[in-house]
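Quick one, tokens below:
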């Protein structure tokens, strides 16, 4: 898998992420206390058909702590800002545990940016 590591500036700080593949964007959201590495075993197969974006949530892994709070809404907004910074208008959002809650909040706040929602 050809993946690149990136540090992306968004209004709330800097988010670390791994990006791989090409095609329709797929945003992978990890759970509480996790990091983007949670998705390392599935990124290769998903990158065969999608542009896979796996960020460290604000305050997790190599991402900076959020400027505001750790609410679902704040995390959803940070992910929206990440997609915009990367040049994507929408994505399929897949999340597990806390990431699933953030995915639901993302779809609620930004329905025009949500292609599909996958929860686990």
């Amino acid at each position: 898998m050809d993946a690149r590591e990136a540090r992306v500036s968004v209004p709330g700080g800097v988010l670390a992420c791994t990006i791989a593949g090409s095609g329709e964007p797929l945003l992978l959201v990890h759970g509480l206390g996790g990091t983007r590495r949670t998705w390392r075993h599935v990124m290769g197969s998903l990158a065969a058909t999608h542009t896979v974006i796996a960020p460290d949530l604000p305050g997790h892994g190599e991402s900076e702590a959020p400027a505001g709070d750790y609410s679902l809404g704040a995390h959803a907004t940070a992910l929206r800002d990440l997609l915009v910074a990367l040049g994507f208008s929408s994505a399929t959002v897949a999340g597990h545990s806390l990431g699933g809650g953030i995915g639901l909040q993302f779809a609620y706040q930004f329905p025009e940016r949500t292609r599909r929602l996958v929860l686990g």
